[in-house]
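Ticket #4471: structure export looks truncated?
Reporter: QA, pipeline team
Priority: medium

Steps to reproduce: submit the single chain below to the structure queue and open the exported record.
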Amino acid sequence: MLTGLKNAFRIKELRGKIIFTIAMLVLYRIGAHVPVPGIPFQEMLGLFQSAGDSIAGGAMALLNLFSGGALSYASVFSLGIMPYITSSIILQMLQAVVPSLHELAREGEVGQTKITQYSRYLTLGLAILNAIGYLFLFQSFGISFHGAGAPEIILDIAVVGTLVAGAMLIMWIGELITQRGIGNGMSLIIFANIMAGLPQAIFQSVSDGGTAGLILTAIIAVIIIAVIPLIVFVERGQRRIPVQYAKRVVGRRIMGGQATYLPIKVNTAGVIPIIFASALLYFPAQLAVFFPGIGWVQAVAGALSSGWINWILNVVLIVFFAYFYTSMVFNPDDTAENLKKQGGFIPGVRPGRATAKYIKNALNKITLPSAVFLAFIAIVPSIVFSFTGNQLIQAFGGTSILIMVGVVMDTISKVESQLKMYDYDGFFK
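Actual output as written to the record:
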């Protein structure tokens, strides 16, 4: 590992990408502590403690986690990366139902550029809606804005405009990291946010419970360390379908004839089902902020944000989105058609429709255990937190671990691919 890091910094181009990525993440973390003009900083410090048991408390905790604590300080980056993530997921899902978007996705770099442009426009719209929602959220907790005697409408516009500008700047930083740095910029920003809240969560977990809190924190740390290899095992797991290529004569050469395999990841959907299920369940809690006087809206939002109803719906939605997203990113019909065009076939299976059916059945069989695994990792920490109230579980639960392990593995893979271009072995031999 240390040798791999040393080799990475020996290459000028790779060293520049790593330094650029670190610089962008540092810039992002600085912006996460710059408060929005007009919002009193001291009043926001205790907001999340007082709102922790309210209906919107669970939603606020989740949103604050993905913003790296920026929401609790009402900083210019309070919206975090979530508008960009939501817009990207929505456009990916629309590609399965909108023929024009599907055709754009198949046009290569030109089509992807167009889809990225649509994603930016959608991010702007979602950022405006979220900023207005946060404005109502701050006002519902009695936060008064200061603006040197300026009219209230001017202060509201300034707050919303600042939050939207911060969200667009985060999107720009994420795209810069993806283009000029190492790894996926969006994922690395989430990784930095989770890591930023870890020290405070550990300190609060130990200080709140005294000796018992210290013992509980140590037990949680041991469990987390034990779970990480299991997550890596599932993330690296593959179902390898054997593929045979027929021999063919091209000129004076005989091509094909070799045996290989078609790799299908066990967890093809990654952490997307958890993120999307959480966003869907916490959306009513965000809407409840706009209707503080309607009792049934508050009751529905509270039931969906925490408790056994939230746990059951989370499991159902995670399994559903695991199947849905897997069907989007891996198309058995296209795979079978490409195999047929290249002269490949699965032994014992007819090319064409039968091959597509075989691949689809194999995909469905491995998606169910991976979806149950994702649901287990996401739900168990929430159940434990409801009984213990330990902040470390909330800040560093199953979703956080899945995201962090996935981002680290993806970043290491990209660095290793760069090292192999220069005849280095990478991080692991």
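Status: closed, not a bug. The export was complete when the record was re-opened. Leaving a note from the reviewer for reference: The beta strands are 238-245, 248-250, 253-255, 259-265, 344-345.
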